[in-house]
Amino acid sequence: MKLRAVITISIYAVVVVFISFWMAKQAYSWLPPEASAESKLIDDLFSLFTGLGTAIYLGVMGPFLYSLVFHRAGKYDMEDGPHIEGNNFLEITWTATPLLIVLMLSAISYRTYEKMAIGGPMELVHHHVPQIIEPAYAEPFDSTPQQKIQEAVETEPTENIVVTARQWSWTFYYPDRDVSSTELHLPVDRRAKFTLRSEDVIHAFYIPAFRVGQYVVPNQEIEYELTPVKTGRYRLRDSMHSGTYFATNQSDVVVQPLEEYEQWLADASSRTPTPAFNQAIYEYSQASNPGAGSTKDKVAIRGWATIPPAPAPVVNFSTQQPPDSPASGGNAAEGQKIQKAPRQVPDRSTPDYSKLQ
Amino acid sequence: MTNISISPDEITRGQPYPGAPDNWKRFFTFSTDHKVIGIQYIVTAFFFFLVGGAMAMVIRSELLTPEADLVDRTVYNALFTLHGSLMIFFWTFPVLVGLANYLVPLMIGARDMAFPRLNAISFWMIPVAATLMLASFLVPGGPAQSGWWSYPPQSIQNPTGNIINGQVLWILSVAINGVSSIMGGVNFVTTIFRMRAPGMTWFRMPAFCWAVLAAQLIQLYGLPALTGGAIMLLLDITIGTSFFRPENGGNPVVYQHFFWFYSHPAVYVMVLPVFGMFSEVLPVHARKPLFGYRVIAVSSVVITVISGCVWVHHMFASATPPWMRMFFMVTTMLVAVPSGIKVFGWVATIWGGKIRFTTPMLFALGGISNWVFAGITGIFLGSVPIDLHVHNTYFVVGHFHYVLYGTIVMGIYAGIYHWFPKMTGRMYYEGLGKLHFALTYIGVQAIFLPMHPLGLQGMPRRVASYDPEFIYWNVIASLGGFLLGVSVLPFILNIVSSWIRGPKAGNNPWRAYGLEWLTTSPPPVENFEEIPVVVSGPYGYGKNQPLVANQARLGTIEEPATS
Ligand code: HEM
Ligand SMILES: [Cu+2]
Ligand SMILES: [Cu+2]
């Protein structure tokens, strides 16, 4: 190989490595705040994939663009290029390299998955064997202080919160205190346990700030665990299309210090259950009642038949407001004003690449 | 096939049978000529591309604002359901089958497909099935609203109570499409196995034909599963069986297995022929042989096999036990290997070549670059922990549109521009073609790139309204979508006007290798006056060797006679 080519390739390689590291760091800022222990694990993995993905992308696109720029035919050049059909060495290299990369990525993903120990539908296969889903935070995953998370994971878990998904509402039931709510409250730094149930179709329990989504399948009780580690108010969304008012099937998650959480439970248990406001029911009544009570966002075209929404959940606690009440912005689609947790970019010096070696 | 002697006069006309119309009217007959059927497929598919595209424009308009304020939610659900269904079942499949129909017999030196009548029947089922699907706009409850995958129990909920409802019509339409595809699969596989010209060994067969073979094999093993699932779903809706009905003990997750066992490989039914087209277009316009031809050819078949073992990656978040999550994570990521082989082969093909930026070449290059991007985000999705976060968010929508639009649609454009002179005998207008490319390429990035940050931030797919925090990227995506809508206009203008009075192209305007370029443009009925006898591989650039032994007697008529 000519010296010039060697130098060019080396410089390009350095640039690629540099950009890939930079992208890997940026990747954290594309994600919601890291509000659960699992989210830290997933973000590290995502950052690693982003870094490697960038390197692969630039590694392929570099030569590609180079030849597009420098290997063009002259205007009157009617000749053919060199007759090169293949090269065994190259072909073996570029089969083996991706193979190694994907095997490595699978192995790393597997490790992350094991550490997450989120439970999930494994209970279908065997009955609860605690050792198997024992959270595996034995070794610190990266340079961030893991001590707190580790402690959190090892704390006494919360009582089993029963999550019920319906067309189209979420209800959270705390059996020990006999409290039900349309808003999910969780204590910070404690392992949270859920039993996920659906009363009609498939829904999905998805809190982007916690990262882990899980289908909620009718006829199956799915055990599910995760550990919130950051106080704040987050969004819970149904991420599995569940019919007409699917987009409104959202709720809030409040992660709060243990005392506040206990206080909230106590307050809620003293309230008498009342039917909560429900966006789907509200819109359904508007649509089946054209003319009456039209709002500025009233639907432009009358749609087709729909499954009537399930009755509003009767709960001790609900903050959801009808759109025309003064407490909300008066916005039907938004349903309720939510306080957004400020966007945070976790401060982290360098992503950990030790896994690569 | 025996040699039928046809007078040169008849050859130029392209009549499917004596007395058949020899002008544009032949496209409206039950022709059994694979070239007529090919064009019937392509033009029909384009019609549904435009219909599905119009729906996409409404979808993107709705998503310009966070509120559900343009169409009712039921209408929105019907729109994305039919958008996806039309695009998959009535645009991508048919247009690719059309191109393969046109090209495969010509490329392997056959006079027609193995079963010409079956071929015609396969085609005519498409407009019937598509009409049935669109007719669901007229039934009382409106079209299906449960997405193109129609997961039960949502899809078996029937608010109208009628037996004839949008969902039932949807299933029937998909089933008819499936039968058509199975018949097509049998036809292609038989044709490629049995009808190759003398001397055309497996490793002298163009990469495109390898890819079509690999894709059609998937249809044969996969479609029965989909059809089975669809029939069970139909029974659940109509006569109340409980295969998937949870209240009577059915298991809706089983449907997901049936569905994805076919519908993941279906992605490769769509993308493999496009890979094949990249492999044909690049050598011609870079004037070099396809690098690593044998490996590229075999990798298509490897993809066929691996893609049959990855379907659970669509169900990682479903009620899937951990061992399944892990097993299918590994198999999913393995598909990157044969796909990567192809990409490297293409890069090596253009490396050191004499590249010409013709419109087909631009579309092929653009398609490959989008495929590299989509492949990488695909690896992200294959990783279980990452998928648990982005599953069913806009990240997925962005990823698969990079495949479907960025790679497949752009590849189809590359193929159409490349073989347009062969199909019509006329040249398209380069300027309009380049404009079309520029609008498409920019449009694809502008709409589908913003979907990735949206998904990472947690915006679910299939929502008619969204939280206001997502406005920013949605507005950009919608504007990009409208640009993409505009991008088809120069294409239609170009194709229609140059088909009618574009400059004459001659038989081989690209000076390309490949049997299809040895005959006239457009090719006569039965394609070749004399069956070619192949003596070397299909990519002889830079070597100056004959491709067939009887070249002198093949394309005797240089210019088609004009009427
Ligand atoms: C201008 C062009 C296009 C635009 C603006 C567009 C936009 C969209 C949007 C906004 C969605 C809804 C995503 C969601 O809410 O889940 C969607 C879904 C979909 N699109 Fe496209 N798309 C375009 C072209 C295509 C093409 C060419 C194909 C296939 C070849 C395609 C296949 C699909 C499929 C399969 C779905 C999923 C439908 C479902 O979730 O049931 N799209 N598209
Ligand atoms: Cu267990
Ligand atoms: Cu798949």
What does the model show?
The complex is a heterodimer of chains A (357) and B (563). Chain A is α+β, with helices and mostly antiparallel strands and 357 residues long. Helix content of chain A is 34%, strand content 17%. Chain A contains 7 helices and 13 strands. Chain A has helices at 3-26, 37-70, 88-116, 130-133, 147-154, 258-270, 279-287; strands at residues 119-120, 160-166, 169-174, 179-181, 184-187, 192-198, 203-206, 214-216, 222-226, 232-238, 250-256, 274-275, 314-315. A 6-stranded mixed β-sheet of chain A has the order 1-9-6-2-3-4. In chain A, strands 5-11-10-7-8 form a 5-stranded mixed β-sheet. The longest helix of chain A has 34 residues, at 37-70. Chain A is elongated. Mean pLDDT of chain A is 79; it is low at 121-145, 291-301 and 326-357. The model of chain B is unreliable at 1-16 and 557-563 (pLDDT under 50). Chain B has helices at residues 8-11, 34-62, 73-108, 116-135, 166-194, 207-238, 252-286, 293-306, 322-334, 336-350, 359-382, 384-390, 394-424, 430-448, 451-457, 471-501. Chain B starts with 7 loop residues before the first helix and ends in a 62-residue tail after the last helix. Chain B is mainly α and 563 residues long. The interface between A and B is large, with 103 and 108 residues. Residues 122-123, 128-129, 132-133 of chain A line the site of one copper (II) ion.
By DSSP (H or I, 4+ residues per run), the number of helices of chain A equals 7
- What characteristic shape of chain A results from the CA principal axes? elongated
Q: What is the tally of beta strands of chain B?
A: 0
Strand order of the largest sheet of chain A: 1-9-6-2-3-4
Q: Note the gap between the termini of chain B.
A: 30 Å
Largest sheet of chain A: 6 strands, mixed
